[in-house]
Amino acid sequence: MASAQAPAKLINESAVEFLTTEMVEAMIRTIKDDTLRLGTDRDPTFGNPNDGAGGPKDYSEGDEAMEAVYYKLEMIGFRVGERLIEKISKDRMRFTDNLDVVKFVCKEVWMFLFKKQVDNLKTNHRGVYVLQDNSFRWFTRMAHDQSSAESVKKVTPYLWFPCGILRGILSNLGIASVVVAETSSLPACTFQIKIAKTA
Amino acid sequence: MAKQYKTLGDDIWKNKVEKINAELFTLTYGSIVAQLVKDYEDFSEVNKQLEKMGYNIGTRLIEDFLARSAVGRCQDFRETAEMVSKVGFKMFLNITPAVTNISADGREFSLVLDENPLAECVELPDQALVDELWYSNILCGVLRGSLEMVQMQVDAFFVTDTLRGDDITEIRVKLVRYLEEEVPAGED
Fold first, then answer.
1. More exposed terminus of chain B, fewer Cβ within 10 Å: N or C?
2. 3-state class (DSSP) for residue A56
3. φ and ψ at A88, to 5 degrees?
4. B138 close to B53: Cβ distance less than 8 angstroms
5. Does residue A45 register a pLDDT over 90?
6. A76 vs B31, B40, B145: nearest CB
7. B115-163: pLDDT as tens digits
8. Pick from B21, B28, B34: which is nearest to A19 by CB?
9. Taking the complete model, does pTM exceed 0.80, yes or no?
10. Parallel, antiparallel, or unpaired: how do β-strands A120-123 and B108-113 relate?
C-alpha cells in the first residue's frame, strides 16, 4: 500500500475516459459471446478496426442482455468503490450519520473522481438522497449531437459503473443501498441513493 | 533524437494534459480484469479480450496523441520506438519505458516498464500465474491499434512481467509491415 507521505501518482484523465468507455463496449461483447456459444463463432469482429469506431451502439437488443451488462458494469464499479473509499478516507474520522457520509460523497468523493463537487443534494430525510451534477464530467467529453432522447439512451450504460462505485463506497462504510442514475438532459445527471433501513 | 522526444513528452505532460489521480484508473482496470476472469475463466481468452479492448482504445487514442504532440511521420521504426516510449507512454500514463533490444534490421524492439500504473498494488492469484494471464495485455492492444492507424501493422506481446515473478516487465513490438496509405473515408 502506498504510504501516506508518497505523492499521489497522476495519469492523463483521458486514459481513464478511454478505459471506461471501452469497458462498456467490452461488457456488451461478453454478452454477445455468451449468446453465440457455438465454438467457431467466437468473437467474429476480433481485430476489426470498425468495431471501435463511433459511439455507443443501439441498446434495444433485449432487456435480458442489457440487464446482464448492467449487472457486470455495476459490479465492476462496486469493487472499485469498495477499495476506493479505503484510499480516500484513510485519515478521516468516523462519520456521524448517513447524511454525513452522503455529504462526504458529494464533496470529497466527487472531487476525487470528477474534479468538482455535486451541484445539488436533496434528501427526504427518510433514506433517499438525490445528487445532482449539472455537468457530469464523463459526459462533457462524449459526443452527443443527436436528438436528446437518443443521446440519453446511448449514455445510460455509462452511468451504471459510477452507480456501482457509489454503492461500493457506501457498502464499505457499512451502509447498504440501492443507487440509480438518470439523465434527461446531457450533460446533467442525477444519482439517487436509497439507503436501506437498518433492521 | 531520444532526448528531443523526452523533452517533448515531458512538456506535453506538464502543460497539455488534464491530470487525475491514478487510483481510479488502477482500481477500474483491476476490476475489469476480475470481471473478465469471471466471464471467461480461460486466461488466454482474457488475454485476448484485454488485447482487443486495447486495440479499440488505440484506434481512438492516436488522434489525441497526434493532436497534442503535433509530430510528423517517423523516419523509421527505431524512431517510432522512441516516440512511443518517450511521448506516447509519457503523455497518457506518465511513465517512460526504456527502449531495448532493437533487432539488427530495426524491425523489432522491446519496451521495458519499470513502473506500471495498471498494476500498482496488484497481486495475481496462483491460477493466473500457472495459466499465463498477462495482466496488462491491454497495453499490447493499444500499441497495435494506435500504430495501425499510422500505417504500421505490428505484433505486440508481453515477454515477461514482474507481476508473474519475472525480473522485468517487457513488451516486445515487431513490425509486420507498413500499410498502404488509404484515402480517408470521411467523417467518423
1. C
2. coil
3. -75, -40
4. yes
5. no
6. B31
7. 999 998 888 888 877 788 999 999 999 999 999 999 999 999 999 999 9
8. B28
9. yes
10. unpaired
Q: What is the Rg, in whole angstroms, of the alpha carbon atoms belonging to chain B?
A: 16
Print the SS3 string covering B132-155.
Answer: CCCCCCHHHHHHHHHHHHCCEEEE
* Chain A residues in contact with B93 (beta carbon < 8 A): 11-12, 15
Interchain proximity A52–B59, CB inside 8 Å: yes
In angstroms, the CA B113 to CA B171 distance is 8
Burial of B77 (0-12, 13-18, 19+ CB in 10 A): buried
Q: How big is the CA angle at A110 (ends A109 and A112), to the nearest 5 degrees?
A: 65
pLDDT band for A51, please (50, 70, 90 cuts).
very low
Q: Summarize pLDDT for A133-170 with one digit per residue, the tens.
A: 999 988 876 665 555 777 778 888 999 999 999 999 99
Quote the CA–CA distance of B129 and B127 in Å, as a whole number. 5
Per the rule left: phi > 0, alpha: psi between -120 and 50, beta: everything else, A147 is beta
ipTM score: 0.92
